[in-house]
Design brief:
It contains 6 helices and 6 strands, in the order αββααααβββαβ. By secondary structure, it is of the alpha+beta class. It folds into 2 domains: 1-60; 66-224, VirB8 protein (Nuclear Transport Factor 2, Chain: A). The strands form 2 sheets. It has a 4-stranded antiparallel sheet, covered by helices on one side. Helix 2 crosses helix 3 and helix 3 packs antiparallel against helix 4. The longest helix has 50 residues, at 7-56.
Amino acid sequence: MSKKVDLADYEKFLQEAKDTEIDLLVNKEKTIKFLKLCCLGFFSLAALGVGGVVTLLPLKEPPIPYILKVDSVTGRVDSLSLVTPDTLSQMDSAVDYFIRYYVKNRESYSAKNIQTYYDTTIEMSDEEQARAWDKKFFDGKNAIDKVLGNSVSIEVEVKDVIPDYKNNKAVVRFIKRYVYDNKQPVTEYWSADLSWYYDTGTVRVSQRAINPLRMKVDDYRSSQEISK
């Protein structure tokens, strides 16, 4: 048996159903909006993270270059110092010094210092250049001490060194001054082209004292420019 529905109750029911449907739609829109905000936030954070990594990449320090020393006997490698513009400049200065040192010893002469000039030039030359220099001293009647004797000495003044450090070459301009006991000195202007390499073999302490950089001149050509 059916129950009679009151019109007021029925209208109330319809209104409640309508309100419930509205609430569901509102909640659905809020949920969609929330999800959109979550996605936007996620991608924003991701973009910031990538940007942060990219920003930090340039801050990563490059590898620090060192000058390395290899022990020719044990093979042990030791780092000596950082490679800086000052370090490279100091190394170039040392090479420049020994280029001048070599030319002065090879081109100078005096009866008093002849042994020093000989030993230094031999130690700083490769085998071929050493043989050529040795011949200059022990070529019989043409030996330098027989030709020049005790009455003259040759003083050398290096005026300029034009180096090519990359290829271990240099052009040296220098003055040779012949000083005699009984007449006026003679001044000559010379230039020399030379090249060298660095000997990494085992050496005695006495050899290293003469040539600590272990530079070995493997080509040397000198010529006179003018004489006064």
